[in-house]
Amino acid sequence: MNDLIKVEGLRTHFFTDEGVVKAVDGVEFSIPMGKTVCVVGESGSGKSMTGRSILNMIPYPGRVLEGAVHWRPNGAAPIDLLSLDPKGRAIRAIRGKDIALISQEPMAALSPVHTIGNQMVETIRMHLGLSKSEARQRAVEMLDKVGIPRPADRLDSYAFELSGGMRQRVCIALAVACEPKLLIADEPTTALDVTTQANILDLFRQLRDDMGVSILFITHDLGVVAEIADEVVVMYLGQVVEQGPVRQIFHDPLHPYTRALLGSVPRLSRNRKERLATIHGMVPSPFERPSGCLFHPRCDVAESGLCDRVMPALTRTPTGRAVRCVKAEASHE
Asked: 166 has which bridge partners?
């Protein structure tokens, strides 16, 4: 299977007065062409920073320290995106056109003082070089594609005049208007109601199937993962702890953290008097990272003298899955 993008040894740290935050700590994974890869984990796992690190869009005082992001569109020779000037013309030509970012909050992504049409036409003209009338027609087509009723009229609307679901659809239309090869969707359904969320997930599937776009979908919701993912990357405290096909992750999780995440998902078959399962403790402060395995203070199967001392490597199983756990390594030798 051809990889559109391959992330290797990615490290993004934030240098604060309180200390160094290792937001992304040696992350590695691939995104195949035409597939959806979901990055999942609790808040503070480094999911969003991983997505932004791919485009080298890290806010101050953060910095990408190490790693490579090999970008290979159309089977061409790979380009390391991190080797490009983060403010240079080459990376700006890729952002928005070849790789588009969809944020969690559409009101933060859309200008409140410009119409939807002005924002879309400007982006389309910048990346595709169309005339104003051609760009406006394309904007109408994109709004129609994502299910916006009366798309021509909506071009003259402002973001605050639309519902949350409609605003998110506009953000998706803006992202796909230049026919990107990769969509990075950062929690795009979190703030939406269940019905709207289902419609947006259907839209992502349709875009993947119709346009052949690859998707990096960042979420904490395992229900969303089950709906849309082909591959799953599980993150904890900036590290990948498990990676594999969605069916294998859900039916045969290898890492204790993955099992704990799946165990905490409410099920209709659960006895109503039964307490919901939870993961012990909380995600540690980024300034007080545990020694050894980062998950061991919350792990039900942690072994004293081993898990609290040894930092496990991310290793491959014979089936090609990846896991970061000394006990999982031993069981698959």
From this structure: none
Query: Strand pairing partners for 32?
Result: 3
Let me know if residue 271 belongs to a domain. yes
Which residues lie below 8 Å from residue 11, measured CB to CB, with a gap of 6+?
22, 24, 25, 26, 27, 64, 65, 66, 67
Structural domain count of the chain: 1
CA terminus-to-terminus distance, the chain: 26
Nearest Cα to 219, choosing from 50, 96, 5?
Answer: 50
Q: Is residue 104 over pLDDT 80?
A: no
The pLDDT tens digits of the residues spanning 147-178 come to 899 999 999 999 999 988 889 889 989 988 88
Q: Establish if 308 belongs to a structural domain.
A: yes
Structural domain containing residue 318: 257-331
CA 241 to each of CA 40, 55, 103, 265, 313: distance values in angstroms, whole numbers, following the listed order: 11, 22, 24, 19, 9
pLDDT digits (tens, 9 = 90+) for 279-322: 888 889 888 899 999 999 999 899 999 999 999 999 998 888 99
Query: Domain for residue 150, yes or no?
Result: no
Give counts: helices (H), strands (E), the chain. 12, 12
Residue 327 is encoded by which pair of tokens? Answer: 């006990």
- For residue 273, name the pLDDT band (cuts at 50, 70, 90): low
Structural domain includes residue 266: yes
Q: Is the pTM of this model over 0.70?
A: yes
